[in-house]
Amino acid sequence: MLSGRTRGPHHRANRPATNASGAIPDVVPALPRDNARARNLPWRTALQWLRLGWSDLWTNPVPSLLYGVGVYAISTLLVWALFLFNYEYALFPALAGFMVIGPIIASGLYEKSRILEAGGHPTYLRMLLVRPRSEYQAWFMGVLLLGLMLLWLRAAVLIWALFFGIVPFPGTDEIVPMLFTTSTGWSLLLVGGLVGALFAAFSFSISVFAMPMLLAERTDALTAMGLSVALVWNNLPAMLAWGLIVLTLFLASLATGFIGLIIVFPMLGHGTWHAYRAIRGAEH
After folding, report:
1. For labelling, which of 5, 56, 82, 111 has a CA lying 20 to 30 Å from the CA of 182?
2. What's the 3-state SS for the chain?
């Protein structure tokens, strides 16, 4: 058996420290740490991102304008196809769903802003043939956002059925009076707007930084989405302002029959890249 003298120093090192009265001292709380993902940016920073997006648009403007023309052409073609195949009941949900998949479509615009930031010369071909550093994870992210859009379309159909029953769609010439001149229509607009706002807020938070992140960094889609939500939440004033700007300009583009997308969509895509650089760049 070891004597107390033999095991004394080692034995004392493993015993908890005590104060003069022999009691274990209270645990001292950890010192507060700064939030690593909070940039403390005012809401007006969103206006600066918009100005930087405008600047990138008109720096070598042809690729960005061609990109905007492509988005306008595809949007017009999809709306025409909905009416051609009698799917006009999906028009309003599809327009709202455009906000969900917008970050996927804007990948080429992020690439142009990244090239300009690096001092390179962007071309339309390089914007179309983007090679994300995360490789197939960017495609996986695109599939997830497309699935979210399909889920929103299904939810919109269910909301319609809850208020008007399982009846054929009356057509666009009758739907507007039904929605805006009846109590059922107003209720549908209220509930549908709230549900659509939840989908839009969720898709905005998971994708606004995730797609630029997958383009510029080597990470996976789920990690990028989680980081995107964290960055949005910890920089809420600036991100709420940016989301409001995106929504307002998108609605203004719809009022012009999608023509406004030729300018608005590239400007917002470039501005989103600068939002990513301002908030994620300092951390990465």
Report:
1. 82
2. CCCCCCCHHHHHHCCCCCCCCCCCCCCCCCCCCCCCCCCCCCCCHHHHHHHHHHHHHCCCHHHHHHHHHHHHHHHHHHHHHHHHCCCHHHHHHHHHHHHHHHHHHCHHHHHHHHHHHCCCCCCHHHHHCCCCCCCHHHHHHHHHHHHHHHHHHHHHHHHHHHHHCCCCCCCHHHHHHHHHCCHHHHHHHHHHHHHHHHHHHHHHHHHCCHHHHHHHCCCCHHHHHHHHHHHHHHCHHHHHHHHHHHHHHHHHHHHCCCCCHHHHHHHHHHHHHHHHHHHCCCCC
